[in-house]
Amino acid sequence: MPDRLSRFVRWHIIVTALFIVVVLGESGFSSDFANTGNLSFALNDISEIALIALPMTLLVVCGQVDLSVASVLGLSSAIAGSLWDKGWAIETIIPMVLVIGLVCGLVNGMLVTRLGLSPLAVTIGTLTLYRGLAYVVLGTNAVSQFPQQYTNLATDDIPGTPIPYPIAVFAVLAVLTAVVLHATGFGRSLFAIGAQEEAAFFAGIRVKRIKLILFVVSGLISAFAGIVFTLRYGSARADNGLGFELTVIAGVLLGGVDFDGGKGTLGGVIAGVLLIGALRNVLMLNDVSSEIQSIVTGLLLIVSVLTPRVVAIIRAARPLPTPGIEGNRS
Question: What are phi and psi of 114, to 5 degrees?
Fold first, then answer.
């Protein structure tokens, strides 16, 4: 493919096109898909995944990963439920839970940056640790009866629109994340670290500090997603968000972020998350079981990892232009 054409055929553009095809195709097939009630439901259904995908994008661009995000969500939900059951005010519970999420991210970051451990190994360990703590805090119980005004904020739409309040918060955070990633020196440092960490270090970039900040932000946003999830369902449980980490990573990689770091756009990630949300909604409307939905998510994760590798192999196999051919043709 000519280079000038390949500039326009980007992976994130393909994902965006697929999302549009799914939306238009299902809208023509099912009248239920296109109504505002279902649109609101579909957006709310991916709100926590979309929120967590923002810091995950920064981490993966930087060559890191956080597999503990769903467990932080579950731990945050369990702590919120336990404190509410003990009579704490919700206005006190929310900042407390956010601080705990920040501490969880700090633990991950310290283990990775100060002890030099692999982020994959560390966050697999804390995935189990934080989920176990959630069960210690709340057991198998469920706590409900949260204040109506707060559950409404997690479920209602902005007046006159089908956009839920959590998605509006996501939109604001997405704009801020896009600015940080694509228009600041901090964002350029993330790409540099992901592309070549040692070279970034010798260029004067504070590699360890940046990684630590990213893990802390990941924990903080995951805790916020735990609050949203708890209030949206009106139920605090230790198993809330179970398995979300794979869906988040699938959305990030499907959006074109290279798992090895150094490449990707936030716009592509948003398109990837929306595509997953649209497919989930289509499957739900067609009464497809949750097991099949998990299979689809797994297949998308494989495709998102495999496709860039295949494209790279094809590009590497293309013969290089022979010098002088263009001149001979002229």
Answer: -90, -30
State the Cα–Cα distance between residues 25 and 23, nearest whole angstrom. 6
State the alpha helices, DSSP H only, in 196-265: 197-202, 207-233, 244-254
Q: What CA–CA distance (Å, rounded) separates 52 from 248?
A: 7
Q: State whether the Cα torsion 182-214-231-27 is positive or negative.
A: positive
Residues 6+ apart with CB under 8 A from 306: none
> Which of 58, 82, 91, 45 is closest to 219 using CA atoms?
58
Beta bridge partners, 143, equal 236
On the CB side of 125, how many CA atoms lie within 13 Å of its CA? Answer: 12
CA–CA separation, 44 and 42 (whole Å)? 5
Amino acid at site 35: N
Other C-beta atoms lying within 10 Å of the C-beta of residue 240: 26
Q: Within its chain, how far is the Cα of 253 from the centroid?
A: 9
pLDDT in tens, 193-228: 999 999 999 999 999 999 999 999 999 999 999 999
What phi and psi, each to the nearest 5 degrees, are found at residue 76? -60, -40
Tens digit of each residue's pLDDT (9 = 90 or more) over 86-123: 999 999 999 999 999 999 999 999 999 999 999 999 99
Place of tokens 């930087």: 62
Q: Which of 27, 44, 66 is nearest to 214 (CA)?
A: 66
Place of tokens 């022979």: 322
Report the alpha-carbon angle 225-229-299, nearest 5: 80
| Per-position DSSP letters for 200-215, written without gaps between them | HHHTT--HHHHHHHHH
- Which one, of 190, 287, 271, lies nearest residue 22 by Cα? 271
Cβ contacts of residue 117 below 8 Å, gap of 6+?
Answer: 111
